[in-house]
């Protein structure tokens, strides 16, 4: 049951967000036109291919089932979404339905009075389970609908591993370093990294922190925004040591994550690099960038390797959720739409279109891609799953963390600077 424990750490976020209340806002929203019909605006991040087609068809089905309701769709490139959405929220011209990933980022939106409680019906709650709603729950109320559950790990090309003479997936960081050496010797870029977008580079620090820091330390940081445990600096030191093996593609600092054949996902899709650390949306992005726009036949997955000397529990994972929220002035039909798309047939369609793991437990049987089945198996065995740290700790702290990691990889900072940047951002909260 994939939704049984999406995060242990998210519970700390809920406790840390206690007392947040939504104040009145003047966000732009839907409402009746001259005829009294209801119109809503909907922003998502699927600009091409199967994902865009899925949302077009699903919205059309909802409109057909709800005469008088019209949804205007705007698809926005993923890397542009956060900035445009924040601008729209702050200007009072937010879309009625917008992407949300829970955690501290959503808590900030709720605190600013920019989102409303989502009315989750009984059928949806039963299908999804309480755990997946934890990251969208603030002060006991649900402010977002989870669509997919996205644990992270390392995707790789089986063909390129074979070409380099790698016969087993890395289990330890030393194994990963050895694989990097073999791939480089075979003339293959070992790891694709889209550091231009910052968060993919920061994912490496997140996972080193997951191995270095205990669950209790991660919980404490989410609750009180303190980062004084030595494990935070150890995570940076471990990443710095790993980066000295030069594992990333040439030009990784100017490589985007998901836009075009030259992106990190595109390098995997076209066998120009062997590995990428990413969440469970990656197979769908990669599929959209292969020459035939079909899933990569040799794509496989393994969990982030173990690292000696840390306090993180073996097998712990990190990931997130993709979901949607309703802006403050959205009509009741916003919640109705979010429940509509959680029906089994639409969750199955979502999983197929995005090549990902659906939040609804009822729809999980549709998942057949080997890489995703491997993710699911590891997820079900994980002792706990933390939210992505930039999601967990909120936009300001998350941005500081992401920027600090990129600076270190660019030779313009170190592990101490990463922690200090986070501490400084947290002090402004």
UniProtKB/TrEMBL annotation:
InterPro entries per the UniProt record, alphabetical: Bact_solute-bd_prot1, SBP
Gene3D superfamilies attached to this UniProt entry: Periplasmic binding protein-like II
Entry annotated with the keyword Transport: yes
PROSITE patterns reported in the protein's UniProt record: PROKAR_LIPOPROTEIN
Keyword Transport attached: yes
Top-rank lineage group of the source organism: Bacteria
Keywords annotated in UniProt: Signal, Sugar transport, Transport
Signal peptide: 1-22
PANTHER family with a match to the protein in the record: ARABINOSE-BINDING PROTEIN-RELATED, BLR3389 PROTEIN
Protein name, per record: Multiple sugar transport system substrate-binding protein/raffinose/stachyose/melibiose transport system substrate-binding protein
Species assigned in the record: Cellulomonas humilata
């Amino acid at each position: 049951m994939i939704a049984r424990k999406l995060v242990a750490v998210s519970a700390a976020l809920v406790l840390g967000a206690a007392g947040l209340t939504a104040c009145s806002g003047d966000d732009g929203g839907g409402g009746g036109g001259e005829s009294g019909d209801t119109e809503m605006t909907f922003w998502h991040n699927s600009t091409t291919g199967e994902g865009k087609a899925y949302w077009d068809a699903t919205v059309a089905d909802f409109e057909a089932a709800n005469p008088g309701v019209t949804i205007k769709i705007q698809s926005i490139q993923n890397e542009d979404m956060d900035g445009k959405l924040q601008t729209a929220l702050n200007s009072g011209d937010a879309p009625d339905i917008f992407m949300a990933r829970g955690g501290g980022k959503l808590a900030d939106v709720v605190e600013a009075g920019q989102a409303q409680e989502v009315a989750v019906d009984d059928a949806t709650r039963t299908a999804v389970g309480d755990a997946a709603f934890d990251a969208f729950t603030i002060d006991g109320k649900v402010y977002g609908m989870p669509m997919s559950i996205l644990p992270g790990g390392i995707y790789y090309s089986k063909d390129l591993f074979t070409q380099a003479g790698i016969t087993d997936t890395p289990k330890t960081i030393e194994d990963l370093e050895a694989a990097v050496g073999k791939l480089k010797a075979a003339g293959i870029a070992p790891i694709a990294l889209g550091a231009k977008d910052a968060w993919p580079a920061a994912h490496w620090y997140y996972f080193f922190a997951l191995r270095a820091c205990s669950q209790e330390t991660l919980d404490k940081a989410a609750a009180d925004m303190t980062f004084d445990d030595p494990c935070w600096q150890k995570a940076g030191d471990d990443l710095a040591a790993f980066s000295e093996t030069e594992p990333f593609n040439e030009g990784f600092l100017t490589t985007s994550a998901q836009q075009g054949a030259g992106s990190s996902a595109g390098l995997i899709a076209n066998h120009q690099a062997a590995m990428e650390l990413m969440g469970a949306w990656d197979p769908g992005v990669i599929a959209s960038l292969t020459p035939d726009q079909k899933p990569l036949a040799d794509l496989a997955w393994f969990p982030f390797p173990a690292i000696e000397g840390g306090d993180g529990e073996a097998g712990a994972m990190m990931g997130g959720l993709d979901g949607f929220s309703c802006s403050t002035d959205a009509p009741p039909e916003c919640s109705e739409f979010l429940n509509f798309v959680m029906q089994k047939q639409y969750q199955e369609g979502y999983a197929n279109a995005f090549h990902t793991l659906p939040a609804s437990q009822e729809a999980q049987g549709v998942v057949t891609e080997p890489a995703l089945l491997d993710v699911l198996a590891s997820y079900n065995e994980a002792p706990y799953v933390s939210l992505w740290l930039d999601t967990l700790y909120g936009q300001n702290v998350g941005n500081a963390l992401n920027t600090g990691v990129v600076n270190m990889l660019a030779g313009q900072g170190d592990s101490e600077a990463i922690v200090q940047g986070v501490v400084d951002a947290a002090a402004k909260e």
